[in-house]
Amino acid sequence: MTGSHASAQAHAMLETLRRDAIGLDVHYQLATGERTRRIYLDSTASTLRLKVVQEVLDRFQPHYSNTHSVLHFSAKLASREYQWAHRMVLDFVHADAATHMCFFTGSGATAGMNRVARTLREKRPERDLVLTSIMEHHSNDLPHRKHFREVIHAPAILTETSLGSIDVARLEELLKNHGARVNYVAVTGVSNVTGIVNPIHEIAAMAHRHGALIVVDAAQMAAHLPIRMCGHADASQDLDVVVFSGHKVYAPGSPGVVAARQSLFAGIEPQDVGGGMVDTVWVDRYTVSDRFPDREEAGTPNIPGAIGLAGALYALERVGMETIAAEEEALVRSALAKLATVPDIVIYGDPDAKRFRRTGAISFNLKGLDHALTAAILNDYFNIAVRNECFCAHPYVREMVMLSLAEDAERLDNAALERLAEMHRGMVRASFGIYNTERDVDALVHALREIGARRDELAPLYRRLANGDYEHIRFRFDPAQTFSVKGEVDRLLG
Description:
The chain has 18 helices and 21 strands. By secondary structure, it is α/β, with parallel strands linked by helices. β20 (462-464) and β21 (470-472) form a beta hairpin.
């Protein structure tokens, strides 16, 4: 197959995935009374499900059975597909199955990161410190704080406009100063706030030089960029642990997954015990299995969740993550350029995509408007779904917001500056998936221009609630009129 033909085939498959994503044709009635199609720009929180994944699960469901047995037909089938799901994860992250393993967890990447923190604390107890960064989601911060004596946050690079990627020079200083104590460096592959990409393989080599491990939070990376755990010409750039979640990779629910070197989990008892992870149990003792991933997956697993996640990964691999990355990065660069033309907009994170690679997400504020009000108006009047507040990355968001107010600090008194800081205590985030297009970007830019031009008309139509959200004084959306589980069960049962 020629290069041009393969490229055309990849783009054709990508177009199929894009066109058939579930939820693209959802319509809601707006505050204006108009009924329009929703524009979904909240993929960093959760991606829409791929139709191909849903159809695979629908076809699997009649064969559903528990694993841990192969003595009847459906058990054979379910066990085979569940085993394949593990192999698919290792293939997706380019991990060597001879030395690496993966296991599934509940509660997305959060559960996986807690497992990793507890295990590596026990595995390397003499190393009681973890290095992470100011950029991290709480899921890649709080587990380390809970399980280790000390956590130090490396800063992001400060530029003339905002913050960039993690400051690797400062990180190396921390490794030199604390090397003998550092258990691992935990860093996000892609920021869930700004979409800025971190140089994880450079960081891996740096950590390994000092005897530390590298743990990568790939929750925002897996859907947007290729991941390569093993096989680098310089083996020090290989990754020790990668954690991500199905709900951010076009799969149903939130099965988390941990891919890691087997040696890091071998030789110690798994954190969770129960059925499936033991070889033998007596009244007074039990023996833990040496088999991966069985020993790390006590109890009945989320079989459909794992199969759905693996199916999504396989679909993305069929297209090629390099193709997906190129298209999404081009869309983000275009969005950055177009959003920069909106009057009174503040874009967070260094916007120079040549200096700092970006993908997936862009966070911003409109000057003089509370982030929650901007998000509410985007929803109620333009049917654009975005997210606001601090995105479970409070320190990173707080630092960028304060940097953005530096210019105002020179001309405002303290009281006015405090009011402005309170208004911009969070951000609005537009985030993208494979189904988003330039039309979606243009719709967002148009809506923000309209909001800015009509702020005196629109703002008085909202009241601020005690929780910080905004509610339209006349317009109400009743979710139960659109969908409820109880209502659907009643309808189906008659």
